[in-house]
Amino acid sequence: MATTPGPGPLSGVRVVELAGIGPGPFAAMLLADLGADVVCVDRPEGSGLAVDPAYDITHRNKRSVIVDLKAADGPSRVLDLAEHADILVEGYRPGVAERLGVGPEACHTRNPRLVYGRMTGWGQDGPLAPRAGHDIAYIAVTGALGMIGAPDRPPAVPANLLGDFAGGSLYLVVGVLAALHHARATGTGQVVDAAIVDGTAHLSAMIHGMLAAGGWQDRRGANLLDGGCPYYGTYETADGGHMAVGALEPQFYDLFLRLLGLTDFAEARKDRTRWSELREAVAARFRSRTRDEWTDVFEGTDACVAPVLSLREAPHHPHLAARGTFVDHGGITQPAPAPRFSATPTTVRTDPARPGADTAEVARDWGVPRLLTGLEAKGIE
What we know:
Shape: elongated
Distance between the termini: 21 Å
Strand order of the largest sheet: 3-2-1-4-5-6
Number of strands: 11
Strand content: 5-15%
Helix content: 25-40%
């Protein structure tokens, strides 16, 4: 297998990922997509994620070695990697990495410039720090989950996109890259505490400003952006599909009404007493045609209306297809790396790393012979 470092703005950056599930692997994938040489330290027993490694897209563009951290020489082998790395990412509960002998102090003793990224749900301190949890609990206590869904139903679950990946992975990546900039300027590494509760709360900054200003009600389905507004939401079509409407600005709203055939509601935009009436009229109109028919009506306009597509449909949307937002690699349709760079373009370079498949290459490329044993190691010393 060819080594993974390639085009991308992070080419030359070395990352050690201590295997986990969810936001940690996704963050490391993003770093790998951007060109970093990411080496995942997999466990002998596997990750526990019920997905065939061949389909685990979060391990694309990476390389894998297997190290048993509970073995006598396990921690020292990871520390050998950390000594040659720029960034290390782990997602254990607080204190676990320290007990395993690969915590920040041990790593910084070997490599003072190392950026040590810690990905957790509750954070490294606080009453809940040692407790187990998942995305849904983290976003629940931040107030974010309580904003999502219809007012007469329980809050809607946004998969694990909001907490794990938006409030977690993306904040970890921002944090370790900022710390890497600092380390290269000063020669000093540091620990980045990326907690999903912190990141998710941070995502709601604009909403908290609106709440303080009296422009947001602290309940579901009562606001401009939470489905409470009849011209910002979703509607069912005649064939059971759905259309998404976001006609917020006056000019877009007027065009939306004209294409929908409801120009009598021009003054209802600012009149909340008519919102229920407007919603019923809009819903009735959308139920009169199929999703594809309505897509044709709004195609190429500024009415801010789009069809709600499934995961399998999305790659075939004309705009996404034209941009190459999804790519086919190794027989898997998957999102292309994002964002895009003019001078250092990124790409899906390799299939998902198979556990342990790259041990010899990493040992050679990183100059870490103790990843191997016996005669294998002598060849790279």
